[in-house]
Amino acid sequence: MKPFHDITFCTTCIKDETLFKSIYKKIIKLGGTCSNDLTRKVNVLIIGNSNDAIHSPKYKFAAKSRNDIIFIYYRTILELYQLWKSGNDITLQSHYKFKSIKNDRIRMLNVLDLKFSFFTLKNFYIFIGRIHNFHNIDGIQDLDHIANQLNCINCNSKDFRKDIKSNYPNSDIIFINDNLDGYRTKAAIELNIPIVHYKWLLDCQKRNAILQYDPYYLVENVQDKPFDKIGSDAYDFWDQIGEMKPTSLLVNESTTSHVNLTNKFKPQADKLWNRALSSTENSSVTRENKHNSMDLQMDANDSSKDSNRIFQNCIFQIHDKFPQKHHDILFKVITENEGIISTSDSLEPQYLIVPSNIPLDEIDLPKDIHPSLVTDFFIERCLHYKKLISPIDSWSKPFFQTKNFKISSTLNISNNQVLNISITGFYGVELLHLTKVFKILKPMGINFTEYLNVQTDVLLINISSLSSIPMSHPLWQNEYSDLFKQNLQNNNLSPVFRNSMKKKIEFIKNNHFIPVATPAFLMDIFKHTSSQYLPRQKPTVSLNNVNWCIMCPKGEPTKFNVKILPTNNMVSDNYKVDTTVWKTNQTTSNLKDTAKEVVSKIKSSSSSNPQRTKRNFSVSVKSEEIRIDPVIKRAKLQENKHIQNVKRSSSWGTMMSNETFDNNNDNHDNDDNSIQATAQNDSFGSHTQITYGSSTTTTSVPSKRLTRNNVKQLDL
């Protein structure tokens, strides 16, 4: 069953048509129902990103007359969809706050209300005046604290600014007081700023929604009313404000009336919500601060006290290549799970954590690495599986050796010089890590495609989701088999993902014949980019290798080879070029001389290795690539040899005209030194033979003497 099954959503103030359609599509994919109108069946009202959302008719009506509706921000749908797509249980079935709720629909609505309920005064600028009588609060400090907790723009209780409207033209500006006396209050009245009774702020917090202050809380309307009667008409369910939301949270409203369901399920509702709210007495306050996906993901780690002892007695060292923000998160997560961070040489670490997205050749590592080298993937995997991963698997080890390589393959169906790869069967932390790996490989020529189509070159599959493959198969007996073993032990692939995987495999079998492999193929590519292979070799990884190939179409074995090519900035130590000769002010006029100097350095450096074949090199100068080919020696010019002047006869193109042909026929007695044209097979022009001779009458053309300098200029 999908998480939003039997839950109806409605939106307000989402003006972007593209965003509106995207939200509705995601709700439907999550199993929910969408309604354009605020009907009795609506359970959740999605608030748009415009400032006037709280003034929309839908919000006003729901805040006043619907105690069963949950208000959420539109970004909640986007985040929950991504989490669900990654394989996370967004209903939090195993969470200690919600595991007692067996009904999936009720539990999902509880999660939305407790963790993602939208209530904030972020568009309000509040002034607080001199209040005469306080009820249920101790003083102005309490009001100031409540307003700031609800994330208002600012709460000013000391002075009043007359330029406030010009500085905040799109904000709701109100003045909190219980009387109309005082200079600040009168100045606010002159600017048409509403004077609102401070009970409005208390009732908004109590209702967990923004109530309409006009006309229910305007001081001019309620000045003579008892405190308990102020705002009594702003909400229709004040008598149920501390009770459970009984109607749409428990059953489908399509079969029973609103009033009957309230009475029928009230005892059960109280019981369920008392369990859910047992440790969240003040959950209605500062819920906006909880509105992020990390909160949902990390809550799974709070299900028991044992989950906080994952790294007990383990000593870690965090490499300084991590950004400060990332470093602080790792430090907090490790220490909260009873791990120890080594900050001095006296405490020898067991694990050295390096970034997964930075190549090892850019990280300064100690020469003798005593601790186990892991990436931040290791911490994420331990948190996901709630245990210390031992032995360290291939996901957790540093695999990114260098970024100085490119992928070349003949499998490019789309002919766009990249290898398009799609995936299926992955969820949870494996899906998270695999997408990060694809992000690393994108500049090297491997592109991740979210959808399988006719442009896809390779499909990667999670073999832990295929129960038909025996453990004795080479797919489970190679050095990368640990990529799937943790996932195999905790395999809870939902029917939605199984159905998607089945359809993709059928599409490949029947319509699009491409190789199907495991991510071990990618890990082997990373392995062959180490200094052991590059740049001295150009290693090849074959897709039809039995260690990772599940299914492969017929064809020559070389067709499925993926070549790993070093880039130009990856040069062997034996062929390094001294780039100090290139100067920033160098012009193209002296490139030739500089090239000769570089070639001489290459020759001198390579003379110590005569067994190696000479290679061509590319030297980068001002973003221009100059290819230096082996120099061919030109023959020396003999000093005393006289070079004949070059004389040019008349243009032979003109002589090929019909007039010239007739003249040649009339003068058969001309000597053989003239240009001759002979007709073949009595049909002149079909084949023409041209011979060149020296003309008897030529005009002497002065020529420049061909000196050594001229020869160099001509590059002869």
Automatic annotation (TrEMBL):
Domain BRCT: 1-84, 188-218
Keywords per UniProt: Repeat
Xref: Pfam families: BRCT
Biased composition (Polar residues): 646-661, 674-693
GO BP term (any one): mating type switching
Gene Ontology cellular-component terms listed: DNA replication preinitiation complex; replication fork
Entry-linked InterPro entries: BRCT_dom, BRCT_dom_sf
Superkingdom field: Eukaryota
Annotated region (Disordered), positions in chain: 280-304, 601-620, 644-716
Keyword Repeat appears in the UniProt entry: yes
Organism the protein comes from: Kazachstania africana (strain ATCC 22294 / BCRC 22015 / CBS 2517 / CECT 1963 / NBRC 1671 / NRRL Y-8276) (Yeast)
Name of this protein: BRCT domain-containing protein
Gene3D superfamilies: BRCT domain
GO molecular function terms attached to this record: DNA polymerase binding; protein kinase activator activity
